[in-house]
Amino acid sequence: MKLPILILAVILCLFTRCAGIKGSYNEDIISFSEKQNILIFNVDIFNGKDSVLIKNQDVYIADGRIQQIVPAQNIKPKDAIPKKIDASKRINGTGKVIMPGLIDSHVHLASSGSPPWQAVRPNVEYNLRAYLYAGITTVYELAGLSGKTHKLKGKINDGKIVGPNIYNAHLPITVKGGHPIPMAKLGAPFPLKNLVDILVPTIAEEEEAVPLIKKYTKNNIDYIKMVCDQLPSGIPEMQPNLLKALVKEAHRLGYKVFVHIGSSENAINAIKAGADVLAHGIYRSSLSDNDAKFIAQSKVPIIYTISGFENAFQFSQGKFIASKWDSLLLPKEILETVSQSQGAKINKVDLMNRFTEDIRKSRPFWKENIAKLRKHGARIVVGTDSTLPGTYPGSSYFQEIKLLREYGLSNLEILRGATSYNAQLFLNDPDFGTIEEGKRADLLLLSANPLIQLEAIENPEKIIAGGRIIERNN
Hints:
CATH superfamily of the largest domain: Metal-dependent hydrolases
Strand content: 15-25%
CATH class of the largest domain: Alpha Beta
Helix content: 25-40%
């Protein structure tokens, strides 16, 4: 059975690589150095956790990691490097702030984000560069072919290509006919539509949980994703007993579980089943105060992805307008087919129109839902669900942050959710997400304090990813 599945996966990969038109991607959006020994001197630090900056520090980087953080010496900047420190790159941090690199905790790398009515071939290596352009130095892939992602990670680690640090699941576990199967079939021609049913793992009975998780964990994965949602309403949804059996076995084998949810009922069922992370916020229903309290007190973090839902709504109204970052980072072949009246074509695509109708009905509840969760201390982290129509690598991250602030999150909540809290979703002792000695040298150098001016993260003076200096070319 393994060989046919492998063959089908290869066919699907080849098709997705070749299907559609070629987009006019700007391959040169960034340039990058090799790993360097770097000293950033006399800089203030937002460490990803604290509500105040650590003032006037020297930060020494070597071998891709933060080696030393010490108080700046009271000497002139040109003399600020002790002779015993071998730093090939010196950066004056006076009046500036460094913070951890950003983390997008919900991505899909092998997609272009084009709509069904205008297929554009995905350019995965470009997507990786777009994340780095936005200062995103770590991504969590939450659905994809794990073997393909594992090869990408190897190329990045070997220095053959440049990209963020990647963690990943495999294709999500669902039920027959459940999400993401119908949506995945949407743009696939015959006979590839049938491959989706074969490739996506499904469960029908509790007894299937143990062998299914055993098979799933043979893939190159860091965590497991499951689906407990109707997207759109009316399709099959995983029942709590099946979810509980799957999560129990995943935990027995030492894996954390991200559960895609949509409604408050989904969220509560996922938490009761033992979910470690909720992938998406409550976008498909209103949320009672009691339910919000239960969710918040469970301490299960929520990757809200509010920008993707908002953009789907704007599509349906024919009002989607690309942001400046969309216009900069996306090929015109995609933007021209989703902007304004073109985006309204979503209303003529079955399943997608049902999805946007769900959003239209529930959108008035979103702000109040988040307010209730915050009131009870829920942990909300930053992820985008890119790359999908309306959510794009790098650019959607800035929109997500703006929407979370509009919906009431403070700058500190957002910054923690973008860094240290995101780093802790499935790792007990992550080596990224904070600025500390021994951590990966994933840093943003900013011209202003992001705790006060959150917009400063959109235009970092320097982006450092694993000790490489990343420069924007436009």
